[in-house]
Amino acid sequence: MATGAHLHAMGCMQGQMKNHSNGSQNLAGSSQLRMVNESFYTDLRLFRQDNLHFKIWKLSMACMSGSQFLVADPIESSSIRSSCDNHRRNNETALILLRHGESMWNEKNLFTGCVDVPLTQKGANEAIEAGKRICSIPVDMIYTSVLIRAQMTAMLAMAQHRSKKVPIIVHNESEQAQTWSNVYSAKTKKESIPVITAWQLNERMYGELQGLNKQETADQFGKEKVHEWRRSFNIPPPNGESLEMCAQRAVSYFKEQIEPQLSLGKNVMIAAHGNSLRSIIMYLDNLTSQEVINLELSTGIPMLYVFKEGNFIRRGNPTGPSEAGVYAYTKNLALYRQKLDDMPE
Amino acid sequence: MASAATCLHATSSIQAQGSKHVFPLQMVSKGFSLDMQLRAKRKNFPASLKLHAVHASSSHSSIADPIEVPSNNNSGDSEKKSTEASLILIRHGESLWNEKNLFTGCVDVPLTKKGVEEAIQAGKRISNIPIDMIYTSSLIRAQMTAMLAISEHRRKKVPIIIHNENEQAQKWSQIYSEETKKQSIPVITAWQLNERMYGELQGLNKQETAELFGKEKVHEWRRSYDVPPPNGESLEMCAERAVAYFRDQIVPQLLAGKNVMIAAHGNSLRSIIMYLDKLTSQEVIDLELSTGIPMLYIFKNGMFVRRGSPIPPSEAGVYAYTRAAATQHLDGFSLKLRKLHHNCIFQCLD
Hints:
The complex is a heterodimer.
Chain A: E1 26-28, E2 31-33, H1 51-64, H2 78-90, E3 92-99, H3 104-107, H4 121-133, E4 141-144, H5 148-158, E5 166-169, H6 175-180, H7 186-190, E6 192-197, H8 214-221, H9 223-231, H10 243-263, E7 268-272, H11 274-285, H12 289-293, E8 303-308, E9 311-314, H13 331-342
Parallel strand pairs in A: 3-7, 4-6, 4-7, 5-6
Antiparallel strand pairs in A: 1-2, 3-8, 8-9
Helix pairs in contact in A: 1-2, 1-13, 4-5, 8-9, 10-11
Chain B: E1 3-4, E2 23-25, E3 28-29, E4 38-39, E5 44-45, E6 52-54, H1 78-82, E7 84-91, H2 96-100, H3 113-125, E8 133-136, H4 140-150, E9 158-161, H5 167-172, H6 178-182, E10 184-189, H7 206-213, H8 215-223, H9 235-255, E11 260-264, H10 266-277, H11 281-286, E12 295-300, E13 303-306, E14 319-320, H12 323-330, E15 345-346
């Protein structure tokens, strides 16, 4: 619906923008600013002329970007105020899914499941590379499993993020843990990204196969049985979970805890495991059990979804920043990225 | 069958601990021959000489008679026989709030890129020191430091975090292969090793805290032994729970001959060092631990001997802290030491 076009601002930029939601352009003086719709490439070159215009620009950025933050400067123009309301009606948020990279048991070819094994150096590098790909996508909350390989992936990825907000792991395990981790500055809290750890996002529990060599498991139980456990939807290994059981607890958690955050306008990142993530994708994309069995998630390559008006729209894999060109998945994400570009380093 | 070979290089000032004796030293290596080139101060020794001595400060290096060490066929028993265990302490590197100059305490803030690098470098320094158990705090910056450091380790045992928080967590994390269990290093997380809890200062900017409470008050909280910040811990309180945990949980492991690594925080570690080195409260306040630089202690006959900071392997030379540690180091791979330069020091604790 909205017109899409390349966006160039050369010379100085006035920063007065009206009617952002439908993407119409505003010509003010020598600047041209056109908004971009989902499926077009955005090429942004913005220059700010002076501080005043920058403040107005920054405020409108604040309204339009997916993340919520306060800007202290007074709102000067009513047109800008209305653009903020347009955004809230827009209510579009980003959902990033990140599967952790190589763990030390992957390297040794052992069934891992819920055994808490850390990343290899390669896995750590995968997390860092993944972080570079999402460094310009807003993140307001992070969910991970209780396993260190997912948590490290989240932390290493966020260390690359441009927003300079700090992830803080929330501790609820006991009253002391809660009291001891209190933050006493409201400003600091605003610049924090809560990280919530949940066993429901753990990898599928592999029961009596955990720790076994894939070869020796085949010798012990027979190749077909092992293949069945690994690739069926509802047959669990002895004392373990089937993919169906894993999906049941992962998707309930997603629906009960994570989706409400998305509806509230929070941009969310989930760092988890092959089976818990494909279970969630099964829900997001309405896959059949056969389709989900065949779904293979690349490790360390983030998947982006945009949550809009109750629907999940798959947006593929964000490209690395070194790649030429800027791909904005939605207008809001483009503007967020722009805001980061304007931020002093 | 154990061929003993070692190499010693005496430079002008090698100090054996507090004495001027000649320390004979024999390294035990399982079936490997060491091919080394010796360079003493004024003599050139041909390769594959068996046993040499280090002498401090005298102008010549003397060669002592080789010592027969009973050859050890059981690699697993060598530690127990010598009742000697290594204890590595690592303080985590830069966290995201260190970078922003905010009081952190027990807020669970992760490492910066620099902190990650520090952990990896620390790992390189200890890559040859045996580790059987790891203890960390419940904060991610210490856990990540431990995991990143171990990913540099040469032994290739895999650290596995123990989950005891409830019955399901315990059950779900079970390992069903004995062989795999043997190749694992249990990692135990304990809140008692957490950083000192900083109460109402947590999250505050160091500047604004000074403005809020006054510079002297803040200085007192930070640098006194027993004055806690509001709703926080004093260093004394931190030490009390950290050292109690160390004594109750970690010392028994060392007594059983397990080599232990503790990855924790400035205040919890200096509390433990206060215990290991028998420091006074004034001394512990002045103690500053470098971040990302591991500290090695040897636990032997119930006593802790400080061994300083291990040098990374890229620096020329091999530093053996004790025979047992050197044995472990030589074990499992063949050594070809071509040139030993000035940093080659052997110390024998017998």
